[in-house]
Structure formats: structure tokens, C-alpha cells
Amino acid sequence: MHHHVLVYGSLMRGLHNHRLVKNSQLIADMAITVQRDFFVVDTCRGFPFAVSGEYSRPCDTLCPLRGELYLVDSVVLQALDALEGHPSWYCRRKIGLANGLPNAWTYILQSPEEIQAIQLDTSGDIFLPVRDNDWRMHFTNAGGVVEV
User: Fold this and answer.
1) Which residue, 50, 33, 36, is CA-closest to 104?
2) CB under 8 Å to 134, separation ≥6 — which residues?
3) Residues 50, 54, 60, 62: is their CA dihedral positive or negative?
4) Residue 8 burial by CB count (10 A; 0-12/13-18/19+): exposed, middle or buried?
5) What pLDDT shows up at residue 148?
6) Residue 83's CB: how many other CB atoms inside 10 A?
7) Distance between CA atoms of 103 and 22, rounded to whole angstroms?
8) Averaged pLDDT, 91-97
């Protein structure tokens, strides 16, 4: 069985966890969610958190998630679940995509401890807001290396 998965962080092309999806079919190199109530933060650990808007801080701007859309098999989906700590750290959730793309799974932060830490950082000094929820742009602007 195959599954559509939206990746928005370290699983994207050129980033350090891409190895898990690199043999899967890339459906769209820019996919955007229909739902606009997310914010993404830089964890300063080399990967972002996508967080439901209900937990936003004054420094966060809610907007759609942006990422790459892949068609993965069940083995890859299980590997992604393991990486993301589904269902306790991140929760794999089905989400609608814009521009006629099929609905896809994506991973939204679920950990109560991490969510509480983000909410306590009201100014975004520790969990940095990612502008336009665009991790690749944020990562490269911060000096991160994207492999070609």
C-alpha cells in the first residue's frame, strides 16, 4: 500500500533525514496545506516542530505548512513513524493540500512537554519562529548546509 506524506523539515531533499524518503516518488516539490493554522519553530536541534495554531504564542504567525509531497510505501511510513515518535512525540495526521494535490499524512507536534516549553518561550528566543513556515529558507538563512 502507498501513502502520500507531506514533509516540511529535515526529511526534505538535501537535508539530513532525507535518506528515509529518497527512494520514494516525489509528487510535488512545493506542497502547501489548505489549513492555515500552523506555526513552525526552530528547535535549534537541526529540525523544526510543526505546531497546531491553538498553541501559538504572540511571536508566531499562523499560516499553511509548506513542504514536499512524497508517495511512500508502508515500510517507509513505518520508518517515518519511528523517526517522528508517532503517536507520542509527533502525531501523524491526514491533512488537505492546495492546488489539487491529494490529502497527505504529515507530522504535528504532540508532546505535552515540548508544547509547554514552546508556550513558555513567549518571545521566541529559544524556539525561534520560522517565517512563512518555510524550513528550507530558514535553515539556509541560518547557515545550514543543504546537500545537492
Assistant:
1) 33
2) 66
3) positive
4) buried
5) 56
6) 16
7) 20
8) 98
pLDDT of 139 reads 87
The one-letter amino acid code at 14 reads G
Beta strand pairing status for 66-73 and 25-32? antiparallel
pLDDT in tens, 51-92: 999 999 999 999 999 999 999 999 999 999 999 999 999 999
Give the residue carrying C-alpha cell 538563512: 141
Cell, residue 10 = 529535515
Prediction pTM value: 0.94
Using CA atoms, how far apart are residues 11 and 40, in angstroms rounded to an integer? 15
Residues 6 or more apart in contact with residue 85 via CB below 8 angstroms: 111
Q: What cell numbers appear for 139 in the block?
A: 535553515
